[in-house]
Specification:
314 residues; mainly alpha; 88% helix; globular
C-alpha cells in the first residue's frame, strides 16, 4: 500500500513537471518579443558608467529585477484570483509610462534650452570624474533601469499568466517562477556581455602577439562597441514605444481588433508578403505609442507650468 502511494506521488510529480515544462515553453515563445525589447531597453539603461563599474551596475539591476518579479508573481496570482479585471488597467498605466519616457527622450532637446542641455552634459562628465558624483549617477541609472524593468516584467508575468490560466494554481506558480528566473538570468547575462564587448576587444588587441587574427578581431570589436551602444540606445527608445503602444492597443479592444483586421487584409492569400502583417501591427503599435507619449508629455508639461505659476502666485 505504501509502495503504491509512493508510486502515485511520483507519477503526480512527473505529470506536474511535464505540464510545467510544456507551459513554460509556450509562455517563453509568447514573451519572446517582450524579451527582445527588455534586452534592448536594459542594455541602453545601464550604459554610460565607468568600465570597471559596468558589471556591478548590471548585477545591481538584475537583483532589482528579481525583487520586482518576487513582488509581481504573487501579486499577479492574487489579482487574477480576486480582481482579474484590474490587470489590464494596471498594465495600461505601465504602458503609458513607457510611452511617456520614450516621448520625453525624443523631445528633450525641444523641452530644454541649449544651456540646460550643456549643463546636463557637464554633470555627466563630472560624474565620470568624481567618485562622489559617480555614486549618485550610478544610483540614478540603477533606479531608472529597475523602474523600467518593473513594467516590462509585469507584461511578461501577465502574458505568462494568461498562458497558464486554465492550469492548477501550483502549475501556475511553478511556470511563473521558472519564467521569472530564466528571463532575468537570460536578459542580464546577455546585457553583461554586451557592455563588456569593448573590454574584450581591448584584451584581444593588446594580447595579440603573433596572432593577426586576434588583433583584427580586437580592432573590430573596439570599433563595433560604440556603434552597438548607439544602436541599443535607439533600439531602447523604440522598444518603449513598441511595448508601451502594444500594451495600450491590447487594452482597447476596438483599436486592437482594427489593427488585426488591417493585418489580415495585408496577409490575405499568404505568400511571401505574409510577414508584412506582423510588421504592420508593430508599426501601428509604435505609432500609437509615440502619439500617446507625446500627448502625455504635453499634458504633464502643461500641468507643471500651471502648477509653477500657481506656486509663484502664492
Amino acid at each position: 500500500m505504501a509502495g503504491t502511494s509512493l508510486l502515485a506521488l511520483i507519477d503526480d510529480i512527473a505529470t506536474l513537471l511535464d505540464d510545467v515544462a510544456t507551459m513554460t515553453k509556450v509562455a517563453a515563445n509568447k514573451t519572446a518579443g517582450v524579451l527582445g525589447d527588455d534586452l534592448a531597453l536594459n542594455a541602453q539603461q545601464v550604459t554610460g558608467v565607468r568600465a570597471e563599474r559596468e558589471i556591478p551596475v548590471v548585477l545591481a539591476v538584475a537583483k532589482g529585477s528579481l525583487k520586482n518579479k518576487a513582488i509581481l508573481v504573487p501579486a499577479a496570482l492574487l489579482i487574477s484570483l480576486l480582481i482579474p479585471w484590474a490587470i489590464t488597467p494596471l498594465l495600461m498605466l505601465g504602458g503609458a509610462f513607457l510611452c511617456f519616457e520614450g516621448a520625453e527622450k525624443l523631445v528633450h532637446r525641444f523641452l530644454h534650452s541649449s544651456e540646460e542641455n550643456d549643463a546636463h552634459n557637464k554633470e555627466k562628465q563630472a560624474a565620470l570624474m568624481s567618485d562622489v558624483d559617480m555614486v549618485a549617477f550610478e544610483k540614478d541609472k540603477i533606479k531608472g533601469a529597475i523602474r523600467t524593468d518593473f513594467i516590462l516584467s509585469a507584461e511578461i508575468i501577465t502574458i505568462t499568466l494568461g498562458t497558464v490560466a486554465e492550469a492548477s494554481l501550483l502549475t501556475q506558480m511553478a511556470v511563473l517562477v521558472v519564467i521569472a528566473v530564466a528571463m532575468t538570468v537570460g536578459v542580464y547575462g546577455f546585457v553583461g556581455g554586451l557592455v563588456k564587448i569593448d573590454d574584450l576587444g581591448l584584451h584581444l588587441f593588446t594580447n595579440s602577439a603573433g596572432s593577426a587574427v586576434k588583433k583584427q578581431l580586437g580592432t573590430f570589436l573596439l570599433n563595433a562597441a560604440p556603434v552597438l551602444m548607439k544602436f541599443l540606445s535607439i533600439a531602447g527608445t523604440l522598444a518603449m514605444f513598441l511595448v508601451g503602444g502594444g500594451i495600450l492597443t491590447h487594452g482597447i479592444p476596438a483599436v486592437h481588433h482594427l489593427f488585426e483586421h488591417w493585418a489580415e487584409i495585408i496577409s490575405h492569400g499568404a505568400g511571401w508578403y505574409a510577414w508584412l502583417s506582423h510588421v504592420l501591427v508593430a508599426v501601428l503599435n509604435g505609432v500609437t505609442g509615440v502619439l500617446a507619449g507625446l500627448v502625455l508629455v504635453v499634458l504633464i508639461q502643461t500641468a507643471s507650468k500651471i502648477t509653477g505659476k500657481e506656486t509663484a502666485a502664492h
